[in-house]
């Protein structure tokens, strides 16, 4: 949003509570190298979408981002502490998945790290959605998990680094969609159907629809590749625009006064941010 505050040494002052970042020391020796690399890179602080919204919202208390040992792979929002937690085990699993995906695609040696970073961005923004719903008491009809998937995708589409091309931005989202399918067997039981999350395949196609809906002419190859049906694609522009307006309608009343704007101004700003060089062929984050 216009005038978003920086996280570094304060050229622009914060008007909402700034986010906090913490890297907890793991007890397990096998996770220590991951912890050291994450802390050295200050990974969470420099996720571009977080930088864009840090200090923008008039939150009732601070929101903290934490990496920690969890005992299993995962990420979650902890309402009692207002913490978004990313588990070191998740980073390890993502890297292993990225290596597997690299071999499947015959991609370059940097692919596993790109896979990790793309998915960390989506996962952290997904949990940020849960945090904003909680801290701002936002109404959500339908499944909250679906709603925060949508918010994460919208933030990645509009608040990536300015020097990232459309191909890179959409490639990151498609890598996140690939991760959603990583544990899918296609065989579901009653617990899967009753879960608060949509089925992995549904989450995958929902992301493809949001990508396609931003510019059907650019992303026609998604249909050609079989990653989105023509029938679903016909409604994706309308679906994407509706979701963007819905989230703006929910979030704009909670924007700190220095960043206040009308819905029309916000939509115009999003369109400006989404103007990027046309992509080449889209990457292929299909599941092996």
Automatic annotation (TrEMBL):
It comes from the Bacteria. Pfam families: DUF4344 (PF14247). InterPro entries: DUF4344. This is Metallopeptidase. The lineage of its organism: Bacteria, Pseudomonadati, Pseudomonadota, Gammaproteobacteria, Lysobacterales.
